[in-house]
Amino acid sequence: MRYELPDKIKFAAILLVLAGHLTFPAGAIHWIYSFHMPLFFIISGAFAKGLDGRFSDFAKRQFKRLILPYFIFGALLLAHYCVYAQFAKYGRMEIDFAEILKRFALGNLSVLWFLSALFFASIFCFLSGKISRSPKFLLPFTLAIAVCAAWLLRGTEGFWCANIALVALFYFELGSLLMRAHSQKPEAFKAADSPLAPMAGLALCAAAFFACPFNLPYEMATMRFGNPLLYIPISIAGCGGIALLAKRIPYCAPVRWIAANTLTIFCTHLIVYSWCRGALKIFFSISYPETFTARTLAINLLLMAAALLAAVPIKFCLNKIFPTIVR
C-alpha cells in the first residue's frame, strides 16, 4: 500500500533537489535550500519502522537501508570521478582524488551525506524514544538539541555526518510524531483538505521565501546556519507549504514511480548532470551558463529530465545486482 500525499510530497521534494543543484535565481535557490532537506527527513521519520523494537534489529535494518546504499552509490560516484576526469580534458578538469577518498571514508561524499545523516538521525530518534515517547517531551527535547548543534557545531565536519544528524533529529522526530498523530486522530488533519489549503500553502511558502534573506547563509550539508532560531521555523514553513500544495498534484504513474525511486534519483543526478553538460559542450559547443536566463531555464529543464530518465536504467541495473538493498 502506498500513501498518496507522501508520494506527492516526495515528488515535489526531489524536483526541488534537482533544481537546487542548477543555476536559478539566488532567491529561489536560498528558498529551496531552506527546507528541501528537512522535508526529506520529515518524510523519512514518518515512515520509519521498528522504533518500538529492539535496538540491534533497528540498527541492522537502518544500516542495510542507508549505509550499504552509501557504499554502493559512493562506488558509482568514485567511478564517475575517475572516468569523467579522463574524458573531460576540454574543461581542464582537475580532481583531488585524495580529498574525494577522504570524504568517502568520512561518510560525506557529495550528496550522499544525506544517507549518513539520516542513519544517525534515526538512531538518535530510537534512543530518545527510550527516554520518553511523549510528544510534550520529545519535540522540545529534540528542538533544543537541533538548535544547540546548529549553533555550536556549525561549519564543522562531523564523523559520518553525526553532527548534521543532531539537527536532522528534530525533523525526523517531527515526521514520526505527525504520522503517529495521524493514525490516532485522522480527523484532526482534515483541515488540510479545505479549499483554502492551497492558499495557506502559498502563504507559508511566501513566508519562507521572504524570511530567507534574514537567515543567510544556511545549508544542512555543511552545517552553515546564519541563525538556527530562524532556520528551523523557516524550514517548517517551507515544508508545510509544500505539503499543502502537493495535495493538488495529480496522482499518476510518473509521480508514483519518481516518489518510489527518490533514492536512486537523489544519489545519481549529479553524475547525470556532469555527463550531460559534457555532452552539450562536446557535441553542441554549449557551455553550461552561470547566470540565469531563458536559455538557462531550457537547459535546466533538459538536465532535470535527463536525471529522471537516467534513473530508469540505473535502478534496473542496481535491482539486478543488489535486489534486497536498493529498492
Question: Can you walk through the features of this model?
Answer:
This protein is mostly helical. The chain has 13 helices and two strands; from the N terminus they run H-H-H-H-H-H-H-H-H-E-E-H-H-H-H. It has helices at about 5-20, 25-35, 35-45, 55-85, 95-105, 115-130, 135-150, 160-185, 195-210, 230-245, 255-260, 260-285, 295-320; strands at about 220, 225. Strands 1-2 form a two-stranded antiparallel sheet. A hairpin with a 4-residue loop joins strand 1 and strand 2 (about 225). The chain is globular.
The amount of helix comes to over 70%
Mean pLDDT: 89
**Main beta sheet strand tally, sense and closure:** 2 strands, antiparallel
Shape: globular
Indicate the low-confidence ranges by residue numbers: none
Class computed from helices, strands and strand pairing:
mainly alpha
β-strand percent reads under 5%
- Which strand order do you get reading across the main beta sheet? 1-2
The oligomeric status of these chains comes to: single chain
Order of helices and strands: HHHHHHHHHEEHHHH
Rg from Cα: 20 Å
